[in-house]
Design goal:
Strand order of the largest sheet: 6-7-3-2-1-8-9-10-12-11
Shape: elongated
Structural class: alpha+beta
Largest sheet: 10 strands, antiparallel
CATH class of the largest domain: Alpha Beta
Number of domains: 3
CATH architecture of the largest domain: 2-Layer Sandwich
Number of strands: 18
Strand content: 25-35%
Helix content: 40-55%
Distance between the termini: 40 Å
Radius of gyration: 30 Å
Length: 506
Amino acid sequence: MNNSTKTDNRLALALFEKMQQDNIEYIYRGEFNTGITDSILSLAETNLDDSKSGIKTRKRVYFILVEGLQNITRHQEEAENSHNIPGLLIIQRKNYDYVITTGNLIKTKHIEHLEDLLEKINSLDKKELKEYYRKILSSRTFSEKGGAGLGLIEIARKSGNKLNYGFEKLNDIFSFFYLQTRINVVKNEYDNEKYEISIENTANLHHKLEANKILLNFSGIFNQEKLINLLSIIEGHIKGKAAIKNKVFNIMVELLQNIVQHADDHKGSIQEGHYGIFFISERKDGFTITAGNYIKKENVDALENHIKSVNNLTQSELSKLHFQSLLDYKEGRQRTIGLGIINMRIKSKNPFVCDFYPVDDEFYFYSIQVTITKRPPKQKKLLIEPTEDTPKVILAEEEPAFLIKGRSYPNNAYEFFKPVHEWLIRYSKNPKTFTVFEIRFIYYNTSTTKEIVKMMNIIEEIANKSAVVIKWYYNADDEDAFNFALQFSKLIHVEFNIIAIKYEED
């Protein structure tokens, strides 16, 4: 197990700086459905209510968001099972304006038509756009995916600005379409000719999200209301068994509440809450959840040492620490750092990756990354029936205990125990929360002893990820058997119970 909390991965800091530099409030990359769309709109509405924007501006922004999200939703089905690049939504503030960027797959053959339509829309003034809208509406020229450009015309009308767009060809069949809309909050010296957010920069950011499989990236002010909306968005996206969904959800709550309740304010905020960043990535083998926020320099050492110590503990040691911490809280002896770190370590079963970057003489930027491994399909049961010179072996995840029982003096101990070791190595990748090993040798030879040592090393790997107990049974009349069991117990740092019984051979 890697005990270090340090890593060269500066993704959290890089994204945080990029999002602050470009005033990006949040990014969502993933599936868009009714539930997720409603949560995104609720989060956007909360941000708009927190801003100083007037009612008219907020309505315009909200309308354009709805149109943009509907555009993504319409085109998802078209690309299903064809090219796995999900939709994209970016909301940012640039100077005095809101900028909304949406992205979705389109058929490459449709680029020419779409480009002609966008150029036509951008060539028209406000009055001409209104007439063009009526013309299309009266012609009833609708496609199976929606009104023939009506949504784009309405976005241009509501925004009062030209539509910025771009296409990235993926292959002969599919391309990715970026649409960028700017809404002026107040009239100012900036206009279309003086600045434009580069589609190329947006595409580069999108590539980084794709490479790291980031579903949701929120940067800005965190408070309880935004926490609830963020949880709703992700909860609607995570698919699979309830156990993995619950783990992801619980760890998200811990990380988000840590920012809401404990982050330090580096720049200060006129809104209720604290600055931070949160993002979640999904891969085939599991989820990685990352959070980052400012922390005062004086608090760095205590937090870093606490995380290091928690990373070094086995699951059984974590359980004991958790119980002791609960007693401390009950008796009023509150620790400087709460139970959240311990809870997340127990639930994730993986060490944290943690970084502290100096910002100035007073503050650091702190990021923590938690990995949740998806449990692979259960292994097939390994069942070996006993013979005159080999023991019975039962290794099955659904069994309450793994069992090795009988005599072991085979002609080739290495070959006999090879499938046992292979099964345990696979199991060690993602063990159950609690594993019991029952070992009941009547007799074993020197060759078997070597294989037992190998098995102990694998069991110790399992103990680094979950609670393990070894129950080693020996013949009460055999003092040598007790001494050998005692020697094995000293080879491994797990709970090792040596139990005397009167053997009755099967």
